[in-house]
Design brief:
five-stranded antiparallel β-sheet, Alpha-Beta Plaits, mainly beta, elongated, four-stranded antiparallel β-sheet, SH3 type barrels
C-alpha cells in the first residue's frame, strides 16, 4: 500500500505509510533545524518542523523570518531499528529520551502541536519561567544582569527584579531577552 504524504509549509501531515510509526524528538545543532529537516525529507523520513513568524529589527530594515517553535529540535517518525541514516545526518545530535534510550513523543502532544501549527493562530516559543525563578537577561540594554522573575505580565513581557547598587529594581523586559538559570527554582526541561 503506497499512500502519499501531504506536506505543508510547516512539515509533514501524518497520512502516509509511516503514520503508524511513533514520533521522536530529534536534537539538532543550533540553527540547523531547517537544513536537517530538508535532508531527512530527502532521505524519505516523515519529519515535522513547527515554525512561527517573527519580525526582526536589523540596522537597516525589518525582516520577517520563519523560526523553529522549538529551537534545536524537530520531530521525525522513525522505526528505531532503522535509525542509523537519521543519526548520521549532518547536524543531528541525538534522539531525545531517557539516558541513551530514545523515548517517543506522546501522540496527544504531537497532535496538539500539529493542530496549533495548522490553526494559523500566532504561536510563539515561551521560556518556561515561573515567578521566583532566577534568570539572566541575554539581550537588550541590561544584557548580563541576573535577577528573579517577579511577575509574568503577558506572553511578551515579564518583570524581573534585579539587584543594582544594593537596591532591588523591577524592570519590564521582552520575554525573548530572558534565559533561565539552573537552580532549585528552575523549571526549564531539556
Amino acid at each position: 500500500m503506497d499512500l502519499n504524504i501531504v506536506r505543508s509549509e510547516h512539515g509533514c501531515e501524518a497520512i502516509g505509510p509511516d503514520s503508524h510509526l511513533p514520533w521522536f524528538a530529534v536534537r539538532v545543532k543550533s540553527n540547523y533545524e531547517k537544513p536537517v529537516s530538508a535532508i531527512l525529507r530527502g532521505k524519505g523520513f516523515e519529519e515535522f518542523l513547527p515554525t512561527y513568524r517573527s519580525k526582526r529589527q536589523w540596522s537597516d530594515r525589518i525582516k520577517v523570518l520563519d523560526l523553529p517553535l522549538f529551537p534545536g529540535y524537530l520531530f521525525c517518525r522513525i522505526d528505531l531499528s532503522r535509525r542509523l541514516p537519521l543519526l548520521t545526518t549532518p547536524g543531528v545530535l541525538y534522539l531525545v529520551g531517557k539516558g541513551r534510550i530514545p523515548e517517543p513523543v506522546d501522540d496527544t502532544e504531537m497532535m496538539a502541536i500539529q493542530s496549533v501549527v495548522r490553526s494559523g493562530l500566532p504561536a510563539l516559543p515561551w521560556p518556561s519561567v515561573v515567578v521566583g525563578q532566577k534568570v539572566r537577561l541575554e539581550r537588550g540594554p541590561l544584557r548580563g544582569i541576573e535577577g528573579v522573575v517577579a511577575k509574568i505580565a503577558d506572553q511578551n513581557r515579564i518583570y524581573v527584579n534585579a539587584t543594582l547598587l544594593q537596591r532591588s529594581v523591577s524592570v519590564q523586559v521582552d520575554s525573548d531577552w530572558v534565559s533561565t538559570l539552573d537552580g532549585p527554582n528552575s523549571v526549564l526541561a531539556a
